Amino acid sequence: MRTSSSAAWVVAALAAVLAFAPARVAHADSKADIAAKAKQAMESYDMMDYDAARKLLNQAVALAKKGKLDKDPVVAKVYLDLGIVAFAVPDQDAAKVAFQSAVQIDSKIQIDAAYRSADMVKLLDEARTEAGGGGTGGGTTAGTGGGTGIPSLDGTGPAGADCSAVTGLQHNIIDNAKIGASVTVKALLGSDVAAAKVSLWYRPEGAQDFIEVKMKSAGCEYSAAIPGTGTKGSVVHYYVAAYDGANKVLAEKGSAGSPNIIELAAGAGGGGPGEDEDPLHKGGGGDNSGGDVTQHADSPSGPSKFFIGVVGGTGFGYVRGTTEGGNAVKNCCIGNSLLVVTPELGIMIGKQLSIGGAVRLGVPIGADFDGHATLAPSGLLRVRYALADNGEGVRVMGQAGFGILRNTLKIDNPKNAMETTDIVAQGPLLIGGGIGYTKHLSSAVAFIFDVSALAGIAVTSSFGSAPALNSGVSADVSLGLAVGM
């Protein structure tokens, strides 16, 4: 009997281990997936693809909530990274909310040195202080009351629940929905929660503030809808809260600091995070970025580093010497190149530094002598550095290369009285710099404004199609777009 009893205990222990092991493996796998998405998100952040970074971090939060890991330290790091991305946009309100969510999980969490700035640390400290001061209506986590496993509370049909058995605030989190379609949110409220009202709060992607919709009751069941105007992006945040007559939170499912996340896709909702995390990349679906394609979450290739830019504008220059028509420049001496187009291919070296190869194509317009040149080509190596940490705003540029700069100029004493406008060529050694401004219009497209100058140095008397080269300075004012690849 004793042997049989010992064997039974061994069998029971093995059964318990085997039953528990899959759960532990799944738990570890979920944490690994969350950490992997956070790592890829910050790689996108390093490449200034803030939309992709935010999307990946939101997916990480959704995975955490699905795996019941939303209070795990790995998720505190995800919220911290969300704050860092929002701070770079810049959106200080969203950054502070994310920091509050992080410190509610890990009160001692700190920003990595690679991303830290004095202003960011100050904002985190403010969030830490406020989070430590207790909850406020709709702003922090409160008692959720009730449990999970409520049938038919996912917006698909009536609950049919026995109200006498309902306690607290109960709601099954909605994971997926269709872009542009309204989403019905339902909850059950037990009689133990003496609520004056129950509200649905939702925040469309890109918005700073939550929008309140008062939920209508039918017995213990409450319902309200997120309208189609709130489901235009790739995700929508929401939470449900019950309040007393003084507007104090009695129970919540989610909160403003740690909202529930609905992932949006072009097709009908279904499946969990990871099945179609970037429908645009796979050829279907869409988001609110106007057609931007972001890197798929499971792709090994990482974020874009290369860009193609094209700017166009006008130029002018200080010229002297001899024109291409053989006329002498006697009086001063400002010529113009009315049309300048400059395509460029470059690579990002971090968030602030880029290196590119450009072709400057000047079009000298207005010359009236026979056989005059119609193009001024030159090749340039450009190095740009943004003054802001996020790579946007003002940037400085250095450039050097070889080619020809051409400006048209009125001639005082032309050799031929019928030919009064001639061309002055400069180069072929070109050295210069500039200043500009960059603003991201989306995750992959940026607006560019540049003011640049080039000194043409006549190290030789002629070059290519230019019969007479001079030294001088030309400047361009240009604007255009850059697209990431």
Summarize the structure.
With 485 residues, the chain is α+β, with helices and mostly antiparallel strands.
Please outline the helices and strands.
Blueprint: H1 2-46, H2 50-66, H3 73-88, H4 92-105, H5 118-131, E1 169-170, E2 176-178, E3 183-189, E4 197-204, E5 211-214, E6 216-218, E7 221-226, E8 235-243, E9 249-253, E10 260-265, E11 306-318, E12 321-322, E13 328-329, E14 334-349, E15 353-363, E16 376-386, E17 393-403, E18 405-410, E19 421-426, E20 429-440, E21 445-457, E22 469-470, E23 472-484
Parallel strand pairs: 2-10, 19-22
Antiparallel strand pairs: 1-3, 3-7, 4-5, 4-8, 6-7, 8-9, 8-10, 11-14, 11-23, 12-13, 14-15, 15-16, 16-17, 17-20, 18-19, 20-21, 21-23
Helix pairs in contact: 1-2, 1-3, 2-3, 3-4, 4-5
Describe, in plain words, how this protein is organized in 3D.
The protein has 485 residues and is an alpha+beta fold. The protein has five helices and 23 strands. It has helices spanning 2-46, 50-66, 73-88, 92-105, 118-131; strands at residues 169-170, 176-178, 183-189, 197-204, 211-214, 216-218, 221-226, 235-243, 249-253, 260-265, 306-318, 321-322, 328-329, 334-349, 353-363, 376-386, 393-403, 405-410, 421-426, 429-440, 445-457, 469-470, 472-484. Helix 3 runs antiparallel to helix 4 (92-105). The longest helix has 45 residues, at 2-46.
Rounded to an integer in angstroms, the radius of gyration calculated over CA atoms is 32 Å
What structural class is derived from the secondary structure elements?
alpha+beta
What is the mean predicted local confidence, pLDDT?
Answer: 78
Low-confidence segments, given as residue ranges, are 133-159, 268-303
In oligomeric terms, what are we looking at? single chain
Strand content: 35-45%
Question: Which strand order do you get reading across the main beta sheet?
Answer: 11-14-15-16-17-20-21-23
Give the biggest sheet.
8 strands, antiparallel, barrel
What is the general shape?
elongated
Q: What is the helical fraction, as a range of percent?
A: 10-25%
Distance between the termini: 73 Å
Q: Encode the helix/strand succession as letters.
A: HHHHHEEEEEEEEEEEEEEEEEEEEEEE
The counted number of beta strands is 23
Tell me the number of helical segments per DSSP (H or I, 4 or more residues long).
5
